[in-house]
Amino acid sequence: MFYDPRSGHPLPHDPLKAIIAPRPIGWISSLDTNGVANLAPYSFFNMVQSRPPMIAFTSESMKHSAANAIATGEFVFNLATRPLFDAMNKSSEAMADGVSEFDVTGLERAPCQFVRAPRVAASPASLECKVVHSLQFHDIDGKPTGGWIVVGQVIGVHIADNVLNKGRFDAVAARTIARCGYRDYAELTELFAAPRPDDARAAE
Predict the structure, then answer these.
(1) pLDDT(203) > 90
(2) What is the pLDDT of residues 64-77, one digit of tens each?
(3) For 182, left (φ over 0), alpha (ψ -120 to 50), or beta?
(4) CA–CA separation, 123 vs 80, rounded Å?
(5) What CATH class has 10-203?
């Protein structure tokens, strides 16, 4: 089959989010300008640069996380895991201004080193970020879509000792989860390694 997304799709459900999957979940904590902590998951999220490290999340409208990050210039990424799934899912609920998802979910906050926003204490990894870019998306006709992207430079990394294995972060031990489209998720349970073609040359 073939279809042009500009004309809609012929399936009962939009397949694109299932095709571009699995996607890491950007569980973003932030503070609003009144100091109220916000926490929400974004599946349009990824690492976009390594030196210096930068991560990005996108919001399909100007929601609390994007607005807070842009207004305060900072946010925190918290790794979403299978044991934290129910709380993560609850934090996706639309909540009124001034309501903190930390309070609604019962998640404990932990302080950060360089940013004011709290991190999720139970998450095995959190990244403190300063915003370096933010912009609204436009389509091929130049019309604004309503979506926004926020890019943050990672300035602090928190890792729980129990997910470090011989000096490597163990994503299986952390029980990292991913979004897979529709209402589907996946837990990382197995890894395989493979050398790159130029690894042998680099070792010479």
Answers:
(1) no
(2) 999 999 999 999 99
(3) left
(4) 7
(5) mainly beta
Q: How is residue 116 written in tokens?
A: 């004011």
- Report the C-alpha dihedral over residues 126, 131, 132, 137, rounded to 10 degrees: 110
Which residues sit opposite 125 in a β-bridge? Answer: 159
Where are the chain's structural domains? 10-203
- Smallest CA-to-CA distance from 101 within 41, 165, 176 is with 41
Predicted TM-score (pTM) of the model is 0.94
Q: List the strands of the sheet with 26-31, edge to edge.
A: 37-42, 26-31, 74-78, 125-138, 144-159, 53-59, 45-50
What size, in residues, is the chain? 204
- In angstroms, the CA 201 to CA 195 distance is 11
Report pLDDT for 198. Answer: 85
